[in-house]
Write a structure and sequence with these properties.
Layout: E1 2-5, E2 20-23, E3 26-32, E4 35-36, E5 41-42, H1 47-64, E6 72-79, H2 85-95, E7 102-107, E8 117-124
Parallel strand pairs: 6-7
Antiparallel strand pairs: 1-2, 2-3, 3-8, 4-5, 6-8
Length: about 120
């Protein structure tokens, strides 16, 4: 079973993909970038503000699918520059204060819309 998850509380997909897919008891959330769904624009500020918006977008999708951060088992964090890792990690850590998920974090050459961070997420019930 494959169910498309979509919410107006997170930004629309930037291409031919879904915000998230629920397959059985596993939720696969596409990489989220720091777009505010109300304005449709990238949030102003630096890595801290961008990471906060990404996590809010993930929260909205988790909620729409009936999940929470406690059910996240894996995250992949993509950064435009590893110099931003500590600041990203500080914001990210607020959402996973207990039993954090497995995670990979690395820098890439470029991210969509020239943002500083993108995070994809997998959650399991």
């Amino acid at each position: 079973m494959k169910k498309v998850i979509n919410t107006e509380k997170a930004p629309k997909a930037l291409g031919p993909y879904s915000q998230a897919i629920l397959s059985g008891n596993t939720l696969y959330i596409s990489g989220q970038v720091p777009i505010n769904s109300e304005t449709g624009k990238i949030v102003e500020g630096g890595i801290t503000e961008q990471t906060e918006q990404v996590m809010k977008n993930i929260a909205a999708i988790l909620e729409e699918a009936g999940f929470s951060f406690s059910e996240v088992v894996k995250s992949t964090c993509l950064l435009s520059d590893m110099k931003n890792f500590a600041a990203m990690n500080e914001v990210y850590g607020k959402y996973y204060s207990e039993n954090p998920p497995a995670r990979a974090a690395f820098a890439v050459k470029e991210l969509p819309l020239s943002v500083m961070v993108e995070i994809e997420t997998i959650a399991v019930k």
